[in-house]
Prior knowledge:
- The complex is a heterodimer of chains A (337) and B (215).
- In chain A, 36% of the residues lie in helices and 4% in strands.
- Chain A has 337 residues and is mainly alpha-helical.
- Among the domains of chain A are: 1-50, no CATH class; 192-300, Cytochrome Bc1 Complex, Chain D, domain 2, CATH 1.10.760.
- In chain A, helix 9 (192-202) packs across helix 12.
- Chain A starts with 11 loop residues before the first helix and ends in a 44-residue tail after the last helix.
- Chain B folds into two domains: 5-106, Cytochrome Bc1 Complex, Chain D, domain 2; 120-208, Cytochrome c-like domain (Cytochrome Bc1 Complex, Chain D, domain 2).
- Chain B contains twelve helices and no strands.
- The longest helix of chain B has 13 residues, at 65-77.
- Chain A binds chain B through residues 30, 33, 37, 53-54, 78, 99-101, 103-104, 200-202, 204-206, 208-210, 212, 214-217, 219, 221-222, 252-256, and chain B through 1-2, 4, 6-7, 9-11, 13-15, 132-133, 135-138, 140, 144-145, 147-149, 151-154, 156-157, 184-187, 190-191, 214.
- Chain A: One of its GO terms (molecular function) is electron transfer activity.
- Chain A: InterPro entries: Cyt_c-like_dom (IPR009056), Cyt_c-like_dom_sf (IPR036909), Cytochrome_c-type_DH (IPR051459).
Amino acid sequence: MIRTLTYAALSGTLLFSANATAEDKTTQQYIDTLAELGYPAPEENELVHIPPTMEDLEDAKLHPELKRVIRRGHDLFTNTQQLRGENVFNNMNCSSCHLGEGRMPFSAPIWPAAVTLPGFRGKNAHVNNLEERIAGCFTYSMNGKPPEYGSDHMVALSAYHQWLAKGVPVYPQQPIYGRGFPAPERPEELSYARGEAAFQEKCSVCHGNDGGGLRVDGQTVFPATWGDMSNNWGAGIVRVFTAAGFIKNNMPLGQPNSLDDQEAWDIAYYMSSQERPQDPRYTGDVKETLEQTREPFHKHSMYGRTRETDGHVLGDHRNLGDKPFLKPDTVRPRTFE
Amino acid sequence: MKKNPGMLAALGLVICSGLAFAEVEGDAERGAAAAGVCTACHQADGSGKNVPDGESWPRLAGLDAAYIAKQLHDYQSGERSNASMMPFANMLDEQQIADVAAYYASLPATQGAGGEDADEAMLKRGKQLAERGDWSAYIVSCKSCHGPGNRGAGEVFPGIAGQHAGYIKAQLQAWKAGTRNNDTQDLMGSIARRMSDDDVQAVAAWLAGQKPVAN
């Protein structure tokens, strides 16, 4: 679908460039390509940023040691399994969810974190910096233990995030085009049975009919969509709208926006109704945990709810997957007192 | 690799047009005899041949048995069409397909040819497409489905590292043109259609030079 574009190329990133016209053209091509893939054009006041590539890094005027560290961050991001058993206890890579090496819009591109943090996060109700935000991914999505703050791994991952944000003003006032996994409008009814059928038809060739995914030679090819090797109950993508947004915008791989909204939501609902490792915020009681985390988080997930097909209470277990502990010590309050 | 019985069942349903295929057990020794008709092109060692100015014959040695069997069934049913292959595929019965597939899967993978003349820039582009893709054109990397080192992933995504460049190029062109479309859900076709002719050339050249098996 090619839309008529009214986008005015007003991004703060581009406006002050000496090559504004050439860059406007590049931006327009970028938007046109996305439009052909079914993504919406940017709203007039949205910030459009084309993150630099690893090829751009080679040409950039940066200290060679910094380039080396950014490359290391890219390597950790795309092959996070190298931290398996140390920081990662499931089959996920960062790039399993953040497609295109963390650069793709509508696939939770990671560069906005570098320009909007430190910032307040509702999920843990305090101000987080970039390292703490990355620690959140390790804690929940990787069912793991974050690298230490200030460690080589953390600095490398932070540097990669910041490199992708190159040229974007810090704390931008404009809304960011393609941020997160924008969910399609929620249909009136979600169906487990339709979701299951659609998953088996359109997802299982890669992710398996049990959601286990596929690994070859000790590397993840297709990530687990639920179960012990998937993200735990605290990861952002257990919220049904986030899963629906991910699926609609990114799946099947190579065919974004090919599923209709109902299908994306039904598949998300079905996936979200399967088990996965316990939420690290677990208090020992699923109802109590739900009460404590409902407002900022679990009101959007199936955690603690009764599955309609068999009466199973989701998340009512002590299964931690492969992880030998419940809560990494990075999950803690801050008070600034 | 963790074998997933559920996955196998699902593949049977989705990939094959009937469950019967999956139930025929292949025997590599019987397959060696039945493969006599294949060796004129695919060679006795399954290495196939890169033919620069004509139709290249793919390496079959070391490919996944279920993948090979699926292709043979598709030639029989017309899901996949190739004038050279069709008469030979039609000579095989269900058991022979399973046996021939098991036989070629059991052979050690051989090295591909056809990438020798590629220049540095072309190989660089080929490597990029194979390992990282080009997301500016939404070309997903080959590796994201064909697995680590592009050596194949499961029964559906064949090993393409060390495959002949001429064959890879012809197949990608066929996916682009729509003359090959026996993939699941257009997974390959949708990517191939975003690739330029230069991209096809580059990735074929690069993959041909890669090791078909892990060290």
